[in-house]
Amino acid sequence: MLGALVAAPLGMGPAGPIAAMFGTQAVLGTTAAPAVLITFATLPVPSVWRARGDGSPAEPNQQPSGFQTAGEQGETATAR
Q1: How far apart are CA 13 and CA 48, in angstroms?
Q2: How far is CA 58 from the centre of its chain?
Q3: DSSP secondary structure code for residue 53 in this structure
Q4: pLDDT tens digits along 51-66
Q5: Number of H helices and number of E strands within the chain?
Q6: Which of 20, 33, 55, 68 is the most exposed, fewest CB within 10 Å of its CB?
């Protein structure tokens, strides 16, 4: 994500002059095609399908890193 934020101005800067030289439709088509291809190329990756935006684990039996259940906490969980 940080790379996209840093690289965005590098792509936006020359976009205007390039569009003025070659035309807006040509530039948009040329830049959209690789974006669409890359998006479709990532779809078959299993981890992309299992990604969750709510922070829950990808698999039902999987716990997030650093998460402990009451049984794993032992005495500290029952002392509360």
Answers
A1: 31
A2: 15
A3: S
A4: 776 766 656 555 555 5
A5: 5, 0
A6: 55
CA distances to 20, 35, 51, 62, 63 from 46, rounded to whole Å, are 41, 20, 9, 16, 18
Q: Could you tell me where the beta strands, DSSP code E, fall in the chain?
A: none
Candidates 42, 19, 46; CA nearest to 30 is: 19
Query: Which of these, 60, 59, 64, lies nearest to 47 by C-alpha position?
Result: 59
**Positive/negative CA dihedral, 71, 72, 73, 74:** positive
**CB of 27 closer than 8 Å to CB of 19:** yes
CA 44, 56, 6: angle at the middle one, nearest 5? 65
Q: What is the pLDDT of residue 3?
A: 72
pLDDT the model gives residue 18? 94
